[in-house]
Amino acid sequence: MQDGNHFALSGMADFDVDAFIESQIHAVKEALGDEKAIVACSGGVDSTVSALITHRAIGDNLICIFIDDNFMRLGEAENIRSILSSEPLNLPVRVVNERQRFMQALEGLSDAEEKRKAFRKTFYETLSDISKSEEIKFLVQGTIKADIDETAAGIKTQHNILEQIGIDPVERFGYTVIEPMKSLYKYQVREVARAMSIPPELAERQPFPGPGLSIRVVGEITAEKLEELKKATFIVEESFEPHNPSQFLAAIFSGLSSKDLKVLKRDAAEITGLDSTQIRAGFMNEKATGMFEGKRAYGSVITIAFRDPSERPLELKYEDLSKILSYLKDNYPEATRLLYLIDDKDRDGYAIALRAIKTRDFLTAKVMELQWATLQEAAAKILNTCASVSSVYYDVTPKPPATVEYE
Ligand code: XMP
User: Whose CA is nearest to atom 22 of ligand 1?
Assistant: First the structure.
C-alpha cells in the first residue's frame, strides 16, 4: 500500500524497493519536465541515490555539483568525482572549489548552532550562485527521514533542512527543492542503493554529515585544528573500518580546561576499586551537543583517565564505564559526553576524541566495545602523525545522552 511517499511493510525489506524507485523516477520526471536540475552530491549514499534517480528521470538535464568546502576528508573531492563519473554510475559531476568561502563564513564562530547555520547559509548560497548562472530552477537533495525528524524535534539544525523550518528556498535562493529520499531511513536508502547497483564503497559507506569536519572541529575552527583533524580522520577510518561500526570518526578539541573534578575522581575510585591518585577527571574546553529529554542539549564534555603507577593509561573496562555513565546522569546531568583517555604525550596540544557506534536508524546509538589494542594502535598513530595533538580519548557515551556528532 502506498500513501504519498510512504510505503507499507512488505517482503524482506520493510518497503517495496523496486516500486519505490519507479515511483520516485516518475515523480521527479513529473516535477521537472524538460527543466534542468542541480543535485548537490557529497559522496554519501543519500545524495548518490537521489542523483541516480534524477539522472534516470531527466538524463543530461542533470548537473551533479560536489562542493569542495574544505571540510571533507583528505583527497575526498577527487575520490568522489572519480567514482560518481565512472562506470556503473556515469553521473555528470562538477567539483567546485569553495574552500575559502566556507572558511571565511565560519571564521570566529564557536557555538555549535551558529556554525551550523553559517554553514547552511553558505552551502545554499553557493548552490544559488551556480543555479542562477546556469538558469536552473530546481535543486535535488538527499534529505532523509531522520534529518527531518531530528530537526523537527529540535535536536539540531540539519544542514539540509529548509522548508520544514519555515525557509522558502524559492524566495531565499531562487530554486525549488526536490527530495526523493525524504520518506526513508538510512538502512532503507541503502536497500535502494543496492537495488540500483551503486558500488558498495558508496552504498555501504558510513554516513558523513553535510557540514563535514566543520562540526568535528569542536568550537572555533582554525586551519591548524582542521589539518590535524583531517590526518586523524584518515587514521581512525583506516583503523576502525575492519570492525564494521555503523559510524566511526574523530573530533578535535582545543584541549582540557584546568578544572579538576575532585568529587568525580573520588566516586570513580569507589566504582572502579582504583586508588583516587590513579584517576584524573576534568572537562574539555569546549562543549558538545547531546540529547536531554528528547531535545538537543549543549553541555560539558567530561574527560577521565585511569593510570598505572608509571602514568600509563589503563585499559578501558566497559563494565566500569557503564556504572560511571549512570553516576554522571544523576550527578552531572548537563554533561553530554564522557571521554576516556587512551594515550597521551607530555606536550601541550589539542585533544582528539575517537567515536565508533552501532545503530540502525541513527536516532539512538550504542558505543562499540572496541578492543583496547585497536584503540591504542589508532591513538599511537595519531600521536605520532599529528605533532600538535597531545591526547587521544575514546568517546564512551551512547546516544542519548550524546549525539553521534559533536555539534
Ligand atoms: P547526530 O549527531 O544527530 O547524528 O546524532 C545522526 C546522524 O546524522 C548525521 N548528521 C548529519 N547529516 N547533515 C547531514 O547530512 C547534518 O547536518 C548532520 N548532522 C548529523 C550524523 O553523521 C549521523 O549519521
Answer: 209
184, 360 contact by CB (below 8 A): no
Looking at residue 155, its pLDDT comes to 65
Do 324 and 268 form a contact (C-beta atoms < 8 A)?
yes
Contact 272, 306 (CB under 8 A): yes
Reduce the DSSP state of residue 311 to 3 states and report it.
Answer: coil
Q: Give me the phi and psi of 356, to 5 degrees please.
A: -145, 125
Domain ranges for the chain, please list them: 2-206, 223-395
According to the model, what pLDDT value does residue 205 have?
Answer: 93
CA 258 to chain centre: 29
**For domain 2-206, is the CATH number 1.10.150.20?**
no
Ligand 1 binding pocket includes 247 (Cβ within 6 Å): yes
User: Tell me, what's the pLDDT at 243?
Assistant: 98
Point out the residues of the chain with pLDDT beneath 50. Answer: 1-11
Q: Quick one: pLDDT at residue 355?
A: 98
Residue type, 213: L
pLDDT of residue 4: 35
| Long-range Cβ pairs for the range 53-56 (8 Å, 24+) | 53/21, 53/24, 53/25, 53/28, 53/180, 53/196, 54/28, 54/140, 54/178, 54/180, 55/91, 55/92, 56/25
Sheet holding 138-140, edge to edge: 93-97, 62-68, 37-40, 138-140, 176-178
pTM beyond 0.85, yes or no: yes
Cα separation, 27 vs 50, in Å, equals 12
Q: Is 158 in the pocket of ligand 1 (CB under 6 A)?
A: yes
Q: Which atom of ligand 1 approaches the CA of 365 most closely?
A: 5
